[in-house]
Amino acid sequence: MELDPLVLSRIQFAFVVSFHAIFPVFTIGLASYIALLHGLYFKTKNPAWDRLSLFWTKVFAVVFGMGVVSGIVMSFQFGTNWSNFSQAASNFLGPVLSYEVVTAFFLEAAFLGVLLFGRGKVPQGVHLFAAIMVAVGTFISSFWILSANSWMHTPAGVELIDNRFHVVSWMEAIFNPSFPYRFAHMAMASFLTGGFVVAGVSAWFLLRGRDPEANRRALSMCLWLLLFLAPAQAVVGDFHGLNTLEYQPTKVAAMEGNWETSTNVPLLLFAIPDQEAQTNRFAIGIPSLASIILTHSADGEVPGISEAAPDEQPPVAIVFWAFRVMVGIGLLMIAVALAGLILRRKGRIYHNPVFLKALTGMIAMPFVAVLAGWIVTESGRAPWLVYGMMTHAEGVTPSLTGPMALFTLVGYVLVYGVVFYAGIYYLTRVVRNGMLPEEERETVGDNFHRPMRPMSAAHTPFDDDVDPARS
Amino acid sequence: MEMFDLTLIWAFIIGFGIMMYVLMDGFDLGLGILYPFAPDEDARDVMMNSVAPVWDGNETWLVLGGAGLLGAFPLVYSVFLPALYIGVFLMLAGLIFRGVAFELRFKSRRNRHWWNRAFCWGSSIAAFAQGAVVGAYIQGFRVENFAFVGGPFDWLTPFSVLTGLGLMAGYALLGATWLILKSEGHIQDWAYKITPLLLAIVLGVFAIISLWTPFVNPVVWERWFGHLQIIWIFPALALLCAFTVYRSVKRRREGIPFVATIGIYVFTYLGLIVSKWPVIVPPNYTLWDAASAPESQLFLLIGVLFVIPIILTYTAWTYWVFRGKVRVGDGYH
């Protein structure tokens, strides 16, 4: 077994970026929700909104902290394992990724402290403004990251001179052809993730009869939101797919499992793609549906994977199945949102235990869908790092050996295993201690004389023994 | 030639960022290194409480430096990181464990000793790795065609092990003098007691490195013993600061030891820079070779010039809010 540094580097990047991405995708949605709760409280003065925003701000603090910790690793990953790519693309990627960091720190420096620790210390309007700015800041951060990523899929505004990209037009490079679609798709994904987590946790609280007044409101809000967002995301995803068809036809062919360019292409529900034989060994599909979706006519022509030479094809089975996982979960989300609508008419969304348990079970689903979606788009770009301009093999660190790459891969798996086990464990405790009645809840204490840092905003002990030093 | 040299501006910004990082994360890493030697659990609480409000702000400079290097000096980013591959991983792993220990140690009782260990080991490994980076930088790298071509352990030599241990001792000294400033009673007494010892270790390592450096690096030899005699001012000033630390500890002054320790760092750092200037990727690439395109440097400069004052203001404000002594049992929880 020969250790290939290229394969190991790709696995490592997939691993660390997946572990990182699940946190921001949640915090972006949650930040907007918290801002909305602040706004509702500001307007109606109903304390239920305040209780909700207090609880969700605690959750936000912990998740944001984990996002920052895993983000530090990301800022070094390009240099350690993809140094040739860093060197080549630095003129564009350097400033764009730096702007993400700059934005994130600006947001943290200016507003996060006020949001986490200013409750009751600053005027309500200032607190609301901070909540809105944090939400805006998370979007600006994701704007830069997705611009950088989209550019790797649909490079524009640059010219390649002596193995280095030079920016000819910042506007064209930043707002490259796939960026608007990807950004919209990802923003919706963040809202869906936030919505399903809030709905699921609210359902869990309702099952236990905890603060029904506040949690019913939260659940009802989320279900309206999801009813609109889940189908809308399918539409946005479809547009994104059509954009990909225009710029990366091979990726779409792999998503559809379509090997030969042809008309009346079926939509495959199940298939076993065989890259060796360049065909599907087994396939069940709905006749002509892929052609209809992609070209809006039954006899429309859909490109085939074989248009690309075998060594320029993405790993078809991975793209094909990740795509089905993502779409499958998307359909499930639409179904749950519709079930909510039907139950709502009978007034049973707050009581039906099967529905509430189903919602609780849905908490993990948006995360799986997001990761599957990233796997589709990133694997579907293979073997290209910058589509049509630079391959993975050209971008990897030349001095990297198999054992080195394996060492750090195993290392990151171990480190993340320990750290995120602790983090997730702690998060579940925050949730389990959440939304308790007023007399059982801990006082927030004097925040201006305590550290202004994310996780300390969640005043929950890490293990069962209560700390006697707590005042 | 343009009106002003963007590359020089960026060199100043990145240089300033690295200095800020070393000084600020230095003392909280140093406290982690001193952790096992602390007299009791109360002292550990105070040590951690004294930096809890500021440590992640301190780490800001590391990420900013990393991203800034990719934006302004991509060659540094794409040579240093592969060359120091294993060291960078160890540093990141150490920083992660340390960060999580900060957050969870106070919220935990049964597992506290594990978080203590995570804090100490994480800080020690991160500090050692950073010191080894300095040593590797002094030695230089095997670079061909704008890429590192050496082996995975090229950076790990007796020399870089020494600089690694040296930086650990230096960070511990920063930590101890910071503790003098922030603590009182028996904890402060302990900090006063260990400071001269740490200072002796730092000066010892400092002397060995100073004697050794010209031998591992002919360019430096030429600098120090050639026509630029004026640069001897930097080690002289560093030694003056060291003497000030010693004297102020003897007189039980509270703020001066920490300030003078910062002085040791600043002058050592400047001495290192002038020894190498204008080479940034040793042995043979200068600042200008390593720079990104001017339009990229300019594009990023606009945002950075806007944000750095805000970060500095926020940092100053945080330190101001949390000024004064940290007492046993002070509310962090």
Detailed description of the structure:
The complex is a heterodimer of chains A (471) and B (333). Chain A has 471 residues and is mostly helical. Chain A contains 14 helices and six strands. Chain A has helices at 5-44, 47-81, 83-117, 124-153, 170-174, 179-207, 212-247, 249-256, 289-295, 316-345, 353-361, 365-379, 392-395, 402-432; strands at residues 158-161, 164-167, 267-274, 279-286, 384-386, 390-391. Chain A is globular and about 65 Å long. Chain A starts with a helix and ends in a 39-residue tail after the last helix. Residues 443-452 and 465-471 of chain A have low confidence and may be disordered. Chain B is 76% helix and 3% strand. In chain B, the strands form two sheets. Chain B has a two-stranded antiparallel sheet. In chain B, β1 and β2 (147-148) form a beta hairpin. In chain B, α5 (85-105) runs antiparallel to α6 and α8 packs across α9. Chains A and B meet through α2, α3 and α14 of A and α3, α4, α5, β2 and α13 of B.
Topology:
The complex is a heterodimer of chains A (471) and B (333).
Chain A (H helix, E strand, L loop, with lengths): L4 H40 L2 H35 L1 H35 L6 H30 L4 E4 L2 E4 L2 H5 L4 H29 L4 H36 L1 H8 L10 E8 L4 E8 L2 H7 L20 H30 L7 H9 L3 H15 L4 E3 L3 E2 H4 L6 H31 L39
Antiparallel strand pairs in A: 1-2, 3-4, 5-6
Helix pairs in contact in A: 1-2, 1-4, 1-6, 1-12, 1-14, 2-3, 2-7, 2-14, 3-4, 4-6, 6-7, 6-11, 6-12, 7-8, 7-10, 8-10, 10-12
Chain B lengths: L5 H29 L6 H11 L3 H18 L1 H10 L1 H21 L6 H28 L3 E2 L2 E2 L9 H25 L2 H32 L1 H8 L7 H18 L5 H21 L2 E3 L3 E2 H4 L3 H28 L12
Antiparallel strand pairs in B: 1-2, 3-4
